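debug: dumping io for the single-chain case to check the tokenizer round-trip. Nothing else runs in this session.
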Amino acid sequence: MFALRRTMANMAPQASSSLKQAGKVICIGRNFAEHIAELNSAKPKQPFFFLKPTSSIVLPGEGAVQRPKGIEMHYEVELALIIGKLTRDLQASDSQGAMDAVKAYAVAIDFTARNAQNEAKKKGLPWSIAKGFDTFLPMSNIIPKTAIKDPHNVELFLQLNGETKQQGSTNLMIYQIPRILSDISKVMTLHPGDIVLTGTPAGVGPAAPGDVVRAGLRIDGKEVEEGAIEIPVEESTSSYSFSET
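debug: decoded output
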């Protein structure tokens, strides 16, 4: 485990630290049809989004994902957009404006406390606990915009202990980037440095202490080096323990 951490620490360039300076992290939910089906959720009539705290971000070399006591923790790999310009009230038809608003990309794993989320859904409560624990947002190094010519045609993947669990193309997204940024920017202004997660493909599942999670993206079958995530899972030492609200 120590050797893994030391290797990860050597991978972390300075540029990635700017991700923690994001004003907000906005996450699109239910944006892949097969993922909606596996969770028995309803397909949204418009992009559905929620916030994740920047304190949940963990960068390469910063340690493990911490699973809180009593939590069933699920992984969800996603393509992240790094916003580069002030964006407000963007029109969904303005595809060029949407792509101009994106300055870079990253791979992210939106870890979710699934049992806490299921309780929140049943009782009409916010998802803040389910999504907001420290370390619940591992992110890769920043991927230059020039490395991804078409963000709607990249393959996301996630492996658990070497076994592929998630693998799906962004061309299967229900709502593409222009519509996503349009709907968000009509509600809240996007500022430079903000992060937008675009949804996860099917195959989500639990990760437990002792597991190692690896994720990334491929273009034409070739893995993009900057998008690699490899992170161990540990039991949290926090005094938090899940109980029903």
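debug: round-trip ok. The chain is about 20% helix and 30% strand.
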